[in-house]
Specification:
One of its GO terms (molecular function) is delayed rectifier potassium channel activity. By secondary structure, the chain is mainly alpha-helical. It has helices spanning 21-36, 63-66, 77-80, 97-109, 121-130, 135-145, 160-170, 176-198, 223-247, 251-255, 258-274, 283-292, 305-316, 318-343, 353-364, 377-395, 398-449, 466-471; strands at 50-54, 57-61, 84-85, 90-93. The protein has a four-stranded mixed beta sheet. The longest helix has 52 residues, at 398-449.
């Protein structure tokens, strides 16, 4: 049962009444730990409760309760001893008091973690991470708060070599080679977009009036350069697509995937263009084919988390966007009809209701190009109502879209934080292994010299290494 203990002034005094004896005893205990590398956990009798002070609120529990989860901060007597205040005979954490109610209940209930409703998810998750509760508990809170998705199965090919290829091309964070290929792919995509825009500039086109003797237009001197660069880009895109298709564990799912369809659309125009001659019959088809090349910009979404967040937001807000288009269509029909009957007549810009659609669209979206505008009093009244209605119509679904964007953005922040935590954990493991190696070398040298073995370098009192010290710096009480 969770209880709040009253502060006892007598706990700060030495039982024998000797001034300063507590500090001398603590110094002796510290020296003993440093000399023998012992687990210097503050001694508690089996029946005495452990006092935990969290932000000024004191809790009492038993050692056997915390020992149910020995891999956590509170469950490990060695790790939590860093926060022990020998003077007050309690553990002190400068953390969120309300969140600690649920964290302590996690130990008391044997693994049931319930977030208080008035504690924000990110605050509670930070507390759970600080006290180093199991990762499964963190994932449950993240799923309940909506800042994480259910872990999806990632099927892999059965063949070892295909599995390595698929993992390298599909998951850029899996290795350094995968990250290098992802960066190179982004560079190639950017190069293709630059060429796509640059080849339309007048400076790279033949000047008018310069023709050959037979009357044909002079060939473009840059055409060969554009063709060579586009060929290099398409060779990379085609090779990447084919290799990913071959190594894919689910071929049909790969072919119907949205990003893979975009990849295919960015490749096909090149091969279609090779089979067409630039004559009058195929010039319109050629223009459409060249326009389709702009889909290459969507290939960046495979490597850009920002574009993925935008795509997920639009996908989740599809119903709201359809509703917005429906409202705009109704508004355009109403105000186009009204302005036609208010302004229509000889010499008017509003020749028919369909002609007035353009004016209604740009007015409701508050763009207002001014190319078509009402001039009569009645027409201006209709225009004012059209603009006001457009603002209200567009503003209705915007909060839902913003909420969806925030939802996916929080997921992305949570993913980045998890990656940072994994990197820090790996750094701590490396530091711990390095500390153990240094300890073994130091002990061997000291034994050869006949000196007393020292504690490993980089290891603090009570067995905490430097990495753990940094992770537990918040809430530390100096004793």
């Amino acid at each position: 049962m969770l209880t709040t203990a009253a502060t006892s002034a007598a706990s700060n005094q030495d039982p024998n009444g000797t001034p300063g004896s507590i500090y001398r005893g603590y110094k002796q205990l510290k020296d003993k730990c440093e000399a023998n590398s012992l687990d210097c956990t503050p001694s508690n009798m089996a029946d005495d409760p452990i006092v935990i002070n969290v932000g000024g609120k004191r809790f009492e529990t038993y050692e056997e309760t915390l020992a149910r989860f020995p891999d956590t901060l509170l469950g490990s007597a060695t790790r939590r001893s860093k926060f022990y205040n020998i003077r007050r005979q309690e553990y002190f954490f400068d953390r969120h008091r309300t969140a600690f109610d649920s964290i302590l209940y996690y130990y008391q209930s044997g693994g049931s973690l319930i977030r208080p409703e008035h504690v924000p998810p990110h605050v509670f998750i930070n507390e759970v991470i600080f006290f180093d509760l199991p990762e499964e508990a963190v994932q449950v809170i993240q799923l309940e708060a909506g800042i994480a998705d259910e872990p999806e199965e990632q099927p892999m090919p059965n063949n070892y070599y295909l599995r390595v290829i698929w993992n390298t091309l599909e998951y850029p964070n899996s290795s350094r080679v995968a990250k290098f290929l992802a960066i190179f792919s982004v560079i190639v995509i950017s190069l293709s977009l630059i060429i796509f825009c640059a080849e339309t500039m007048p400076a790279f086109k033949p000047k008018p009036g310069n023709g050959s003797a037979d009357g044909k237009p002079e060939p473009n001197p840059y055409e060969k350069i554009w063709f060579q660069v586009n060929t290099f880009v398409i060779v990379w895109f085609t090779g990447e697509y084919v290799i990913r298709l071959i190594s894919s564990p689910q071929k049909f799912k790969f072919l119907v995937g949205a990003l893979n369809i975009i990849d295919l659309l960015s490749i096909l125009p090149y091969y279609v263009q090779l089979g067409l001659d630039e004559d009058d019959s195929s010039i319109s088809v050629l223009r459409v084919v060249r326009v389709v090349r702009v889909f290459r910009v969507f290939k960046l979404s495979r490597h850009s988390r920002g574009l993925q967040i935008l795509g997920n937001t639009l996908k989740a807000s599809l119903n709201e966007l359809i509703m917005l288009m429906f409202f705009l269509t109704i508004g355009v029909m109403i105000f186009a009809s009204c302005v036609y009957y208010a302004e229509g007549g000889p010499g008017s810009d509003f020749q028919s209701i369909p002609h007035a659609f353009w004016w209604a669209v740009v007015t409701m979206t508050t763009v207002g190009y001014g190319d078509v505008s009402p001039s009569s009093f009645e027409g201006k009244i209709v225009g004012a109502l059209c603009a006001i209605s457009g603002v209200l119509t567009i503003a209705l679904p915007v909060p839902v879209i913003v909420s969806n964007f925030e939802h996916f953005y929080n997921k992305e922040l949570n993913r980045r934080k998890e990656e940072e935590m994994k990197k820090q954990e790996e750094a701590r493991e490396k530091a711990k292994e390095k500390g153990l190696n240094n300890s073994k070398t130091s002990n061997d040298l000291d034994s050869m010299d006949g000196k007393t073995p020292k504690s490993p370098r980089g290891v603090l009192v009570c067995g905490l290494n430097k990495g753990e010290e940094n992770s537990a710096k918040i809430g530390h009480t100096t004793v």
